[in-house]
Write a structure and sequence with these properties.
Rossmann fold, 6 helices, single chain, alpha/beta, globular, seven-stranded mixed β-sheet
């Protein structure tokens, strides 16, 4: 059985291909950025957002070791600033967006994603996604504020117009320690 993280990548692999554009809305240690960069190849492009210099630096190093820096643009900024930072020409052109909500592993656990900025980012990024494109949200609720963010995301996506997007949730039912869950939004 796949974890939420692995299933998120599978959901993205189903729609993302070489030459496409993608967004890593929460760069973290760069694993999703690296996955996206490898998938879009040298003819595609990935845009990544993170508020922590440590995350941007770790991701640049990971991408540099693999020789994928040229197809990635990283912003040391919150994902709620996507609309201001992404070129307007990308509206309707993004094939995949990935979020990992929570905190940066092995870093300051008091710096976490927050419901208000996460909801702003989702709302801003939906118009950037092309029909058939997907947004994945891996939600970690086992930290202070995590459950509130998860509930806010649930309420928000449940209210999205089904004529514009379809939304699916995936989570482990019998796991200890509040395992992450996945929400996938597909643009119609």
């Amino acid at each position: 059985m796949k974890t939420a993280l692995h299933f998120a990548q599978q959901c993205i692999s189903d729609v993302l291909q070489e030459g496409d554009s993608a967004i890593d809305a929460t760069v973290g240690n760069g694993y999703d950025t690296f996955f996206l960069a490898n998938t879009v190849g040298k003819t595609g492009h990935v845009y990544g957002f993170d508020i922590q210099a440590q995350a941007i630096s770790a991701t640049r190093a990971r991408l540099g070791e693999a020789g994928c820096n040229e197809c990635v643009t990283l912003f040391e900024a919150g994902h709620e600033q996507a609309c201001q930072l992404l070129p307007d020409v990308l509206r309707g052109q993004i094939r995949a967006v990935m979020f990992n909500l929570g905190y940066l592993p092995r870093a300051d656990k008091s710096l976490v994603t927050r419901p208000e900025t996460t909801l702003q980012a989702i709302e801003q990024l939906i118009p950037f996604v092309t029909p058939g494109g997907r947004i994945t949200l891996v939600i970690y609720e086992g930290h202070p504020g995590g459950r509130a963010e998860g509930e806010a995301v649930n309420a928000f996506v449940e209210g999205l117009d089904q004529n514009d997007v379809q939304v699916v949730a995936y989570h482990m039912m019998n796991q200890k320690n509040t395992p992450p869950r996945l929400i996938v939004i597909e643009k119609r």
